[in-house]
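User: My collaborator sent over this chain with a note saying "see what the structure looks like." That's all I know about it. Can you take a look?
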Amino acid sequence: MILSDRDIRKCLNAGTIRIDPPLSAGQIGACSVDLTLSNEFWRFRKKVKKIDLATAKHDEVLELVRADSITLKPGEMILGKTRERITLPADMCGRLDGRSRYARFGIAIHVSSSVVQAGSDNRQVLEIVNLSPASITLHAGLRVCQVLFMRISSPAEKPYAKFGDIARKQ
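Assistant: Without extra context I'll predict from the sequence alone. Here is the result:
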């Protein structure tokens, strides 16, 4: 069951769902919460010409860029991170989606791995791709995606654990 705006507010007030920093006015929609882009981005290193997924390490392929804005060329992909840290209980999960207003300009805000696992306690890493024929500039603080919250049928036996990748680097 997807939570409504009323349910989301109840969960936030009760501390069942925690979002830090606290949400600003208007971030809660009818059944989702808008999340904002931080100033942390990961761009492919220029020297990378081939990636072997069996052995590739993020730090070898990507470089961290901290900036208030970043421009993507047509066809370029970067990783971004939400400013908000989401903490969920073991009986709740989320789903990330891009916002249609940016999709209409050719930006895919979240390409894959849209599940926010039960028990998560992190900021969300976003795969951002420019599918338009023009360069597009993103800014820190932009409401780039939304998260829907759902109750699951029973608490997860193995709530989400952090792994040694970009999602873990807070």
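A starting point for your reply to your collaborator: The mean pLDDT is 91.
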